Amino acid sequence: MQSIIPAVTAVAGYVPDDVLTNFDLEKMVDTSDEWIRTRTGIIERRILKGEKKGTSVMASEVLKQLLEKRNMQPEELDALIIATVTPDYIFPTTANITAYNAGAVNAFAYDMLAACSGFLYALETGANYISSGKYKNVAVIGADKMSAIVDYTDRNTCILFGDAAAGVLLEPSTNGMGIKDAILRSDGSGQEHLYMKGGGSVNPSSHKTVDDHMHYIYQDGKTVFKFAVTKMADVAYEIMEKNNLKSDDIAYLIPHQANKRIIDATANRMGLGPEKVTVNIDRYGNTTAATIPLCLWEWEKKFKKGDNLILAAFGGGFTWGAVYLQWAYDGH
Fold it and tell me: For 6-176, which CATH superfamily applies?
């Protein structure tokens, strides 16, 4: 029996209208546009504003776009996976809310939490649902409202993050092209270097956890950078070697947008020039689980059927991974 190859058949994205620039941050904390740009590559980021607006607001727009692009009725959707570290609530899941908002009443939906690697984890999971033959379509979305957990008095973290959502629709391939391979890794020893200290079962929400700023991102920047610059580059090169791909075979690297220096190190390890690397960190910052699908959305028109893409990420936890994706349609 011939195996079923899961293919990306549609891409969609959403970014909020409000822009937070480096010059805005200069007025909030002791930093400068020049310092931020030279160390991270970020110039501005988008912020979701408005009362009672959570991650599902952005994710719902993405899901509606995906269905519209494929001329699918919402009731036809089989499953929805949302990768996020900023759910609307602990429960119900943001995926449940998003499916409801889009009218996907027959889909089972759940969230996946793997920090900045979350989209790759969710993509591999969704791909396996398609490969099983049981499901005909699965939507996979990366969405995060990072502004909800950023301390805008902490100059080490507030310069990095933005809000966005983007995702893909997976269906069985009709031409043999699609998701070919994935390598996913994790290392729990990294837990203390990048995490949110309060709000979980170890430190339940209390007056003290709020007073101690424990509900914001904490990051040991130097340690995280050291791990990320090595692990993300290594796993991207590993998946190339595993699939006998040379630099000339790769159309694009689609890297997680955390830091321009990490992106450059990954491209160099793979032997790729800047023309083969998708970068939008300058305009959106680190949108966590949304960065990779956001690049797919922005570069979709440049992709050609048969293009070999390598998706690579590193996130808190630590988590990291790479996916080898053969693009299944000409961008439009």
Answer: Thiolase/Chalcone synthase (3.40.47.10)
Contact by Cβ (8 Å): 266, 255: yes
Residue 332: predicted pLDDT: 66
pLDDT, residue 331, reads: 83
Q: Are the CB atoms for 153 and 123 separated by under 8 Å? A: no
Q: Which of 309, 293, 319 is nearest to 195 (CA)?
A: 319
256 catalytically annotated: yes
Burial class (CB in 10 A: 0-12, 13-18, 19+), 252: buried
Residue 194 parent element (H or E): strand 194-196
CATH topology of domain 180-326: Peroxisomal Thiolase; Chain A, domain 1 (3.40.47)
Q: Give me the catalytic one of 116, 193, 259, 295.
A: 116
| 116 belongs to the catalytic site | yes
Active site annotation includes 286: yes
- Residue tagged active-site, from 22, 137, 280, 286: 286
- Rg of the chain, C-alpha, whole Å: 19
Q: Please state at what angle helix 260-270 crosses helix 221-242, rounded to 10 degrees.
A: 30
Point out the residues of the chain with pLDDT beneath 70: 1-2, 332
Candidates 256, 259, 295, 308; catalytic one: 256
